[in-house]
Predict the structure.
Amino acid sequence: MFGTLNSAKGRPQYALVPPWVNGEVTWIDEAGEYPDDKTICIIKESDGKEHQLSMCHDWPVREPRPIKKRMKIQGPLLTGQRILDSLFPLACGGRAAMPGGFGTGKTVLQETLAKWCDADVIVYVGCGERGNEMAGVLDEFPQLEDPHSGRQLMERTLIIANTSNMPVAAREASIYTAVTVAEYLRDQGLRVALMADSTSRWAEALREVSGRLGELPGESGYPAYLSSRLADFYERAAAVHTLCGKTGFVTLIGAISPPGGDFSEPVTTHTKRYTKVYWTLDSTRAQARFYPAVHPLLSYSEDIQSLVDFWKQNHHPDWLKQRRRFLSMMEDQQRLERMARIIGKDALPPRQQHTLMCAELINEAFLSQSAFSDIDRYCSPQRQAAMMRLIHHFIVKSEEALERGVAIEDISSMPLLRRLQRMGEEIGEDNIKAFTQLSHSLDEAFSKLKEGETDAAG
Ligand SMILES: Nc1ncnc2c1ncn2[C@@H]1O[C@H](COP(=O)(O)OP(=O)(O)O)[C@@H](O)[C@H]1O
Ligand SMILES: [Mg+2]
């Protein structure tokens, strides 16, 4: 780094010394205004070779930019989406895949992440998707405000548009261009998140280019090097110490649109091998207008253990335990619903009806979150923790009531349950205290429930 660029808007940028240059500054221009390709600094190497530097430099996009050293994961990339942050969190500097059939909400979710995630800079690649979607992004973003900095969202967003009507060779390159730009910003010490919608279109471009070159096709006509190209791409996600002594992050999130929603096709299966977080968008959930349609049983995150500390520091020491409880309830729900379809829900024992009731509550009150609701489109970690604790509190309280003999019907008809179901829409960021009040009301309501004659726990 040899200079700072101040622009009227936004944060300062740095003029970086290209990674291959190493030596002593022999001349530097005065502070002022210059075109970005004018020589403003001369560096002389020990062997006498001179380099003339301007504020920009060339870089071959297929090659990762060098770093000093990789770092350990330090915290999550907060997305403001409960099902992601609380159940399947992604580390800052991590890599995630988002597979989903047509219309399951990949584009909406990618855009939601671009809007609300807590990165410093967003690089958004529209790769081979419809042009009007990109136009929508360009229309909408300048009107939105970043909840973290209070500035215009557009100021931190970089869009690389490569719509379906543009040449395939350019599409193949667009993903590399995007990661290189992301790495360049990372080298300035920024937290960068890259969203690519979708990597399937990119792989198709790869296939087409390879076909025209007359190469031998592999699986489904994709070139044999598809897998290694995907690996090379996701490998570029990292938390690093940069060459100029800063810390920087590149987080990669790639959408996959498998043809016909078939998750066994090559792009999906290979991507799964190289990503640590996997958010499956489910068409059944999407058809039921249950958004974001991330399927809690078909998704996973391998970054969990390293993020426990984050939740501890954010007043949620029981996060891991409660998360496990939520997931196991939803697993039981799947099994019990199958049974209920055969024998009828009311024929199930009260304990199992209780599991179904709680799983439904988790789905409706916690996992469902509309991208178009002014109150609920973004959920801070504090609010997520409060909601998760409250639902868990309800589970524990209702279990206790059931044990002491309260009828399941009396629990499921409690008016408070409706308030819990609607809390995401009704209690906003500025009123987090309301969750504690709701928790007290819950205690009160449960203490008033009367035991029935039969032993309901049995
Ligand atoms: N989080 C969400 N909240 C509300 N509606 C959504 C959400 N995600 C998707 N939708 C609805 O689903 C439609 C299709 O989503 P889209 O992202 O275009 O699908 P895909 O890119 O997977 O083909 C959207 O037009 C929108 O109406
Ligand atoms: Mg789409």
